[in-house]
Amino acid sequence: MAATDDPTTGVVLAVCAATDDVILDKIGASGIDKRPLAGRIAVGELGLVPDHVVDTKHHGGIEQAVYAYSEREALRWADELGRELPPGWFGENLRIDGLPITDAAVGERWAIGDDGLVVETTIPRAPCRTFAAWAEEEKWVKRFLERGDTGSYLRVVTPGSVGAGDAVRVVHRPDHLVTVRDLVTGAEADADALTTLLTYEDLGPKVRREASRKLAHA
Fold first, then answer.
1. How do residues 46-63 score in pLDDT, each as one tens digit?
2. 68, 55 in Cβ contact below 8 A?
């Protein structure tokens, strides 16, 4: 559950997008190979304007418009795997430091930079065989889920632009205390908190689906 003393500010270390497909063995084309971009990048309802999504069935869309990953969580993985994991390696659009990402409350809203961009946390990233092929690490999907450092997908509340160095400020934190991580761990999530979350009428369908699933196992 989210702690009441969680930081409320962070910084965007890098803004990343896939401008070309990468071909993975036994997978084919994928947009997972995201690289840092220079300058300010426009962000619309469906995410970073230059970003390329190949698998539109499982990626992209309003509730998964932008994917954020924590620098601190990336460093934990880098230490375990014994190699550098630069911005974009997790397929993320935003590498952010100083602010809880996986441990953000579901429905938390962030103002990013000074161009009006506001985003809202939705669901955790579900690792797939494409991610496993990209990582080239043994039992990667299982390990990624067990640790639970999944990062968070974001819905774009107000379009704007984003650039490296932008401040990230929490402008709204709901009081249900269900975090993005709780939608992964499930059994550790408090049933009362999940029930409260599900009373929110403006939940997106994917958030409601994930919360309902975890409540069934809580």
1. 999 998 776 666 678 999
2. no
